[in-house]
Every structure is written in structure tokens, then in C-alpha cells.
Amino acid sequence: MTDLDPLLDEQRRFPPPPEFARDARIGSMDEYRRLYRESIADPEGFWGRLAEAEIDWIEPWDRVLTWDPPHARWFEGGMLNVSANCLDRHLETRGHKVAIHWVGEPPGEQRTLTYRELHAAVERFAAALESLGLLAGDRVAIYMPMVPETAIAMLACARLGLVHSVIFGGFSAEAIKDRVNDAGAKAVLTADGGWRRGKIVPLKDNVDEAVAECPTVEHVVVLRRTGVEVAWNDERDVWWSDLVRDAPRGAPPAAVDAEHPLFILYTSGTTGKPKGILHTSGGYLLGATLTMKSVFDLKEDDVFWCTADVGWVTGHSYVVYGPLAAGATAIMYEGAPDHPEPDRLWEIVADLEVTIFYTAPTAIRAFMKWGEEWPAKHDLSSLRLLGTVGEPINPAAWMWYHRVIGKERCPIVDTWWQTETGSIMITPLPGAVPTKPGSATVPFFGVDADVVDDAGESVGPGSGGYLVIKRPWPSMLRTLWGDDERYRSQYWSRYEERGWYFTGDGAQIDEDGYVWIVGRVDDVINVAGHRLGTAEIESALVSHEAVVEAAVVARPDEIKGQAIVAFVTVGGGVESDETLRSELREHVVRRIGALARPAEVRFAQALPKTRSGKIMRRLLKDIAAGKEEIGDTTTLEDYSVLATLRQEA
Ligand code: WTA
């Protein structure tokens, strides 16, 4: 893992600013260590105490944890309602506090919802969903733009014990169909369209196309957002506003079991089929709430902005559930960061006096490219804390963020976690842990992280290995929807006898115990902070009639972190020209979505394979990256393939 070497040369240290540490929830390394030790020495005592303090239970639990590897049950016997924890319990003390400040993409469009207003909207929409005959445990797909109604929809599901599956608005009809069918969703919630860089994304059209092949779907609820004409199916479709108007009075929160499923969120794995990550209620909510408060050092008057789309786990945990459970004021922005101009986000920060800003390294690299003049136009002095998530951050981008956005004043929390982990796992606590640019630093409470080799031995400082988590944590995934076998083999089989969770990430730990994440060690790639499986893209490519074989690899990209390069062999008689190249790129967009569009399609006469017929991706990666020296080729079956591949490149 030589990629790490430059990172480990990083000598800069940034201790928490004394003023920040003084007022912080956790204000020193000693305090972090004391709590961390407690969480590891007595996890049940630690988590039991916090579950008591952070969550309103309708019925108390009997047991903190039942660990029957690889299945965990947290807070068994406890009953709660997640939406009541996010809304009802704040009404008395924070009823008039802003819960969501929403900013639309068309400039000037803004809405503010107080906790009271959000609560009323969720109550009403829950009653509307109930009027459709949906029952606790039913699955509801949500394919919507970044508007308050999307949060309302999620919370209304939680209120009734319906299991939501949010599908990112950038996915295509084909991708929606697969996800809806896998979950067996009874209803799909969508909008007539969404705004993106001044254009309308045809959300309803995509749903129509998908749902034509989704036999479980009985209802499609459509929010009017853009006003465009949409096709209509009277038996199935209903306008959001009509449904709400006709619904009886609000729905009270249902008491559900701590282990009742809260949501399914599909993410990419190493096969062509996305995985339905299942999260449940009590443990997930505890993880989201506790990290929200401690990692972001949340104060009552903070204005918190996580720029993630709710279609990703970051949007679930830090746009909706974490901030609302913690009683925070959260920002939700509908559009693109550079629309109409590259200072849109900074304008919003200044206008709404954002205090905590959490984004992805890919966005930071784009800001760097657009230039310092854009943030310089606005007063960013309200900011007190910055965060990043989703991919490794290079020290140069970290330093730019620190200097240009944080004015060398704001700590930066580089937070490592995954869809599977539900909440932040490795991170600095900003008032306690000195940061090093490029390192996610230390494990959060209760997270027993290590870097080990194939045999499971800790590698120790100076060597790379696999990042594992050695014991269960409350917000961990519980299984893969409908595929417990894959859950076992994907995450638990590698260190089965030890009961460790395999993250799929490579990492290194330095002599201070700081974790440096290198990136995925499996066939998952990370393009602009979006997780994609190479196998998914390959199966999209081979579904095109001209394609015989395809291999997809990532090459480094200055802005997006990684970019997709597809090597393709075509059938005899097919013209491998520019037209086919762009057709194949658009074919992938149709099958998956624009986020999966290959940056490059390279035609090859043959793909490099081992004697046993396995495609040698490692070689393709080197070729895609334009490396002169490529890796070990001793197992290559046919050397001439290499020479032609390079010529064609
Ligand atoms: C990567 C996003 C380095 C990692 C919350 C992980 C990171 C995958 C970081 C999960 C970070 C996430 N530093 N790498 N701070 N955060 N990753 O499921 O490879 O979309 O396995 O969850 O993103 O991506 P996912």
C-alpha cells in the first residue's frame, strides 16, 4: 500500500484551538480517552447509560445487547418511535426553533420550518400514508428532490413503522426498478420533477418507467415541485396535496420495537446487484444522535449544514435523523453548488449564518479549482467547525479548507464511516483530538477498530492492512434485505471465527494510534464521493448488444478522487468508433444513472487474463492511470494483449 507513503510524511499537527476546547462538550484528550476506555471496558454499561440519556423510550429495554455473531440485537424489549424522538419531544422546549431552513435552487426560494411546523406536517403526511392502507413493516420507496417534503416523508414513515428506502434522485428508471423490486415496496413517493442547474429532472417519468415493471407497487404519491406536465395513472397515482387534504387528523407515533426496521438503503458492493443495507430503530438513532452531538460539538444555537443528498446515508444520518433527534437547526439545499454561480454555498453560509459545515472532499477540490475569489465574496465568520466525509481527503485539500474556508480558526473533523455503519466511526472530536491533514484520527466511543493482515494479526505502525471493527456497535447494519447469506459472506466471513466486521477499506495506523484510510480494497470505487461497484457498471455495459466483455477500473482524478475507465471488447463486425463510445457511455447512464457515466471507454481486442481466465484488473488500473511501469505480469496468459492495450490507449 505504497499510496500511503506521502500521507505518512505529513508532519503538520493542528491542536484544537483553546477557545474551542474550553467550550466543547469533550474538551481534552484525557476526557476523550477516559470515555473511550469506559466504552471499551464496559460497552453495555456505556451504551445503556447513553441510550437512557439520549433517547425517549415508550417502554424501557431489558437487555442492552444480544450478540449472536454476526447478528446483533440492541436494546431488546425497548419500544420507541423515531419520529417522536426527532419531533414530539422537542415541542415543549424548541417548538418555535427552526428545524429546517430550506433553500431552493432557483435563487430567492426559501422555506423555514419550525419544530412545530415540521411536526404538524409529518403528522398529517403520516395520516395520509395510513389512508392508503400502508401498515407497519411495509416498504415505501422515496425518489424525491432535496425538498422538506422528503424529510417529512421519511419521518412520516418512521412515525407509522413503515420502512423507507430512499433512492438517490440521480438514479435511472432501471436502477429504481431493481431497488423497488428488491424491497417489495408497496408505494413510491416522488415529485413531478426536481431542479438541477436550472433544468428539470424528470423524476415522475423515471418512476413511471420503473413502476411499469414493479408488481408490488400499489400507489405513487406525487409532490408538485416544478409544475411540469406529467403522465397520470388514475388507479395508481395521487397528488401529495390531495392525499394530505383528504386525510383525517394527524397520526400519533406508533410504538415500535427497538429492532424494528427503520430503513433500507441500497449501496454498491462487489457484484452487479446493489445491497439493501438494513438499519433498525433504537441503535441507529442512538448512533446518529450521539455522533451528531459529540463529533459536531453541537450547541443549542448552532446552524448545521451537511451538504449531502438525502439519497445517501450521510443525508439520512446528518441531514435528517441526527440533527432532528438532537434538536438542531439544519440546512437543506436543493441544488448544485455552482448554480447560478460557484459561490452559491458561501452565499447561503453567510445568509443563514451557518456555524457547522460538513461536506465531501470532492466538493472541496472543486471549490479549489473554482478559485478563492468565490468564498472571498462572502462573510464566513459564522463558521466555527468544518467536516468532511465520503472519501480520503488529500492534505492539500485539507489545508485549503482549513485556510480559505475555516480561516485557520475552525477545527476540521475528517469522519470515516459507511452506509453499513450507520453513523461516524473514526473521527477527531474537535475540542479534544489534535488533527493531522489526511487522517480520520481516532475511533469514536465504542468503536474497536484495528488494522490487521490476512491472518488477523494487528499490523502495527508503519504497515498497511485491512480495517476491521472487532465488536458490534449500536448503529451497525443488521443484515442485507432479503439476503442474510450475502451479509455473512460480505462482512463477516473473512474473520469469521473472531466475529470481526470487515470494512472493505485498507488503512494504516501510525505511532500515535491515528488511522489513515487508503481506500477500498475490493471492487468498489468512489467517484465524487459516490460509491459504485465496478461489477454494476460492467453488467450495464455487457447488456449492450455490441459488447462482448467489459472490465471497469478506476483511475485517479484530481477533482472526483476516482474516475471510471471502461475497457470493452466488441463483437465481430461492430465498428468501434466515437459513436459507439458515446452510445456506451449513455447506455450506462440509462442503466444506472449519470453518476456512473464512464469518463473513458477504451476499446480492446482482448482483456488481460490469467491462465484461469480471471481478468487482471490490476494491470488495467495501471494502464488506465497511464503508468509506465505496470505491476506483476507473471500470471498473464497472453502477453501480446498488453502491448495492444497500450497501443489502443
Ligand atoms: C469511504 C459514506 C476516507 C470509505 C459515509 C468507505 C472514507 C466508503 C471516509 C463508504 C473518510 C468514507 N476517509 N474514506 N473520512 N468516509 N470513506 O457507504 O472507502 O457511501 O468504505 O458511506 O467511503 O461510503 P458510503
Structural overview:
The chain is of the alpha/beta class and 649 residues long. It has three domains: 18-81 and 264-515, 3-Layer(aba) Sandwich (Rossmann fold); 83-254, ANL, N-terminal domain (Rossmann fold); 528-648, ANL, C-terminal domain (GMP Synthetase, Chain A, domain 3), CATH 3.30.300. The chain has 22 helices and 30 strands. The strands form eight sheets. An eight-stranded mixed beta sheet has the order 12-11-8-6-7-14-15-23, sandwiched between helices. A seven-stranded mixed beta sheet has the order 5-4-17-16-18-19-20, with helices on both faces. A hairpin with a 7-residue loop joins β14 and β15. α3 (29-41) crosses α4, α9 (173-183) packs across α10 (203-211) and α12 crosses α13. The longest helix is centred in the N-terminal third of the chain and has 17 residues, at 115-131. It is globular. The structure holds 5'-O-[(S)-ethoxy(hydroxy)phosphoryl]adenosine (WTA). 5'-O-[(S)-ethoxy(hydroxy)phosphoryl]adenosine binds next to α13, β20, β24 and β25.
Provide key terms for this protein:
single chain; 649 residues; alpha/beta; Rossmann fold; 3 domains; 8-stranded mixed β-sheet; 7-stranded mixed β-sheet; 30 strands; 23% strand; binds 5'-O-[(S)-ethoxy(hydroxy)phosphoryl]adenosine
Please sum up the structure shown:
It contains 22 helices and 30 strands. The chain is an alpha/beta fold and 649 residues long.
